[in-house]
Amino acid sequence: xxxxxxxxxxxxxxxxxxxxKGVEDxxxxxxxxxxxxxxxxxxxxxxxxxxxxxxxxIEAAAAMMLLAKxxxxxxxxxxxxxxxxxxxxxxxxINARLEVNIFHSSKKREIKIxxxxxxxxxxxxxxxxxxAKIRFISSNRRYVNPGGILKADVVFVPxxxxxxxxxxxxxxxKVIVVELNPLSRSAQKATITICDNVIRAVPLLTKxxxxxxxxxxxxxxxxxxxxxxKKILKEALKNISRNLAK
Length: 246
Ligand code: PTJ
Prior knowledge:
By secondary structure, the chain is α/β, with parallel strands linked by helices. The chain has 11 helices and 8 strands. The protein has helices at 10-24, 30-45, 52-67, 77-82, 84-94, 107-119, 162-170, 185-189, 198-212, 217-225, 229-245, and strands spanning 71-75, 97-100, 125-126, 129-133, 143-144, 154-158, 174-178, 192-194. Strands 3-2-1-6-7-8 form a 6-stranded parallel sheet, sandwiched between helices. The protein has a two-stranded antiparallel sheet with strand order 4-5. The site of ligand PTJ has 25 residues, from helix 2, helix 4 and helix 9.
């Protein structure tokens, strides 16, 4: 469907079209539609903009990514449909590996997601292998790539189910998530939670990394030290209740 740019809900409707097309093209799971709807509801409550606390999380995430020894960006069916080019650009600017990791098991969909990312300028995309597993999780998401998530010290997970965030943390990895719902398990368990829409957060993260590239290691460590994820989550909830009270 062609959405006129003048439509007051142009951005939201365009995102819906991308997710629906993702399902048609075999990239996004059907459950991904429901997950997107939940995200939309929280985005509405957050005012559909990047809030100040989300901005702080983006700064801390940029610093953590620049300090990472082995950084991997984990991509599922929703992220691939919504922001394939932005994810490819982020991976290049920070020298991170891209790895497909999906909840709803399907080899065919993993390959389609990989192809879709490559078509949108990704350099290389890893797929999970049955030979490599992370501990503390039983879903399809336990399978990872031995050169990717398995050995990563920092994993960036734009929108996610909570199980794997928790498992990745238990596997001693630093986990940065983008999650609109501050109450969700991934938001609560992550090392850094960017409470924002991936559509806005990922380009902002790329921009911040570009700015921070000239920072010294000590300065980047200071940014992380001054960051408190629990406080950020509380502020996100306060923002939601303020918007509801208005
Ligand atoms: O491709 P697959 O098989 O890996 O499936 C992907 C989904 C997202 C369906 C899967 O990971 C899943 O079931 O996730 P959940 O548990 O539904 O959680 C997804 C979370 O993403 C929800 O808590 C939403 O609030 C959040 N979300 C949805 N859309 C966005 C979002 N967060 C940020 N930006 C969005 N655009």
